[in-house]
Specification:
The protein is 64% helix and 0% strand. By secondary structure, the chain is an all-alpha fold. Helix 8 (134-148) runs antiparallel to helix 11. It is globular, with a radius of gyration of 21 Å. The chain starts with a helix and ends with a helix.
Length: 333
């Protein structure tokens, strides 16, 4: 394997390391590898998560306003707790922030109206809802509902418990419940503890946008409809979450690994992932241009890598993420 690409074997694993950097970026004085916009959006997501959990603990879904969360000192207490101030939670906050920032409909790449394959759909999900396949329409509608719920009335990103990985949910609930108990005027914590237990039991990742996107993508793959046109239209509509899930399905990667390779680590990793798909050279160039524009404003180039090396990298990336992380820890020990 060429020296330039050797480091990519641990590309998804290094997202865990970048997650550690995000802890400092979000909660520390320094802001390494994180723009002011991403940091601001990520903290907005944390406020929305606190608002969501406090609302559930209070017995209603609305929750207090963000202003109340901030004015009571609840957010400051939450920020310092290990359940929130850790690499995995920080990475989840940054990922949601970037999904929101990237989610602006794009005009990148002028469509050739003379090309029949250039048909452009403003919102592919709505197109599926309006289509004749009832199962696809049902899945698309469920995803559209979850997608809409990820943005508040002012256009700001929302992060809820169902959006979090399972291992993050219960610690976050108990941390926010404990912080709420400290700022509350109630002297008896047992009712709050009882409600927190119910919230833990109610968690259902199947309600999340990513789970519904995966359900939709599976049906599209069954129909052999995941092609360059759909991928382009999905990106251009601003739906980077669905785009990353479609890429995950087409490449047999986990959704988390696909997102990491596309938008979190080296541009070379994203380029190799896209180039590994069974698409035409023109489609590959088009997608690399759009992904690069989202990441840095500069189109990505087709990687100069031997096919056998790309296959080896893809095989490694398909392994269980926990195994990859552990293998990297062993090799670094």
């Amino acid at each position: 394997m060429k020296r330039r690409y050797r480091h990519l074997a641990d590309a998804p694993t290094r997202v865990a390391a970048s997650g550690s950097a995000y802890v400092d970026a979000l909660f520390g004085p320094a802001v390494p590898a994180l723009s002011d916009e991403d940091r601001s959006l990520a903290m907005t997501c944390l406020v929305s998560l606190a608002e969501h959990v406090v609302g559930r603990l209070s017995g209603h879904d609305g929750g207090p306003s963000p202003e109340t969360i901030l004015s009571t000192g609840l957010l400051q207490r939450i920020e310092g707790m290990p359940a929130i101030r850790n690499a995995d939670m920080s990475a989840a906050l940054v990922q949601r922030a970037r999904q929101h920032r990237f989610g602006v409909p794009s005009s990148i790449g002028k469509i050739d109206e003379t090309d029949a394959s250039s048909r452009q759909v403003a919102d592919p999900v709505q197109y599926m809802i309006d289509g004749s396949d009832h199962d696809l329409a049902r899945r698309a509608l469920r995803y559209a509902e979850a997608r809409t719920a990820r943005v508040d009335g002012e256009g700001q990103p929302i992060l809820t418990l169902d959006d979090l990985a399972h291992q993050l949910v219960e610690p976050a609930i108990w941390a926010i419940a404990a912080a709420l108990a400290r700022v509350s005027s109630d002297t008896e914590p047992q009712p709050l503890v009882d409600r927190a237990r119910l919230v833990v039991l109610d968690h259902d990742s199947a309600r999340s946008a990513i789970a519904r996107a995966a359900h939709l993508a599976a049906r599209l793959a069954e129909r052999d409809e995941v092609d360059g046109v759909l991928l382009r239209d999905t990106l251009d509509s601003g739906d980077v979450l669905l785009f990353s899930v479609l890429i995950a399905v087409e490449s047999s990667l986990s959704t988390g690994t696909a997102w990491s390779l596309l938008f979190d680590v080296d541009a070379d990793a994203a380029a190799i992932l896209i180039a590994s798909l069974d698409m035409s050279a023109a489609t590959t160039d088009m997608l690399l241009g759009r992904i690069g524009a989202l990441r840095t404003g500069t189109p990505l180039s087709v990687p100069d890598i031997e096919p056998a090396d790309a296959v080896r990298l893809m095989s490694w990336w398909r392994l269980n993420p926990r195994f990859r992380n552990a293998a990297q820890d062993v090799s670094g020990a």
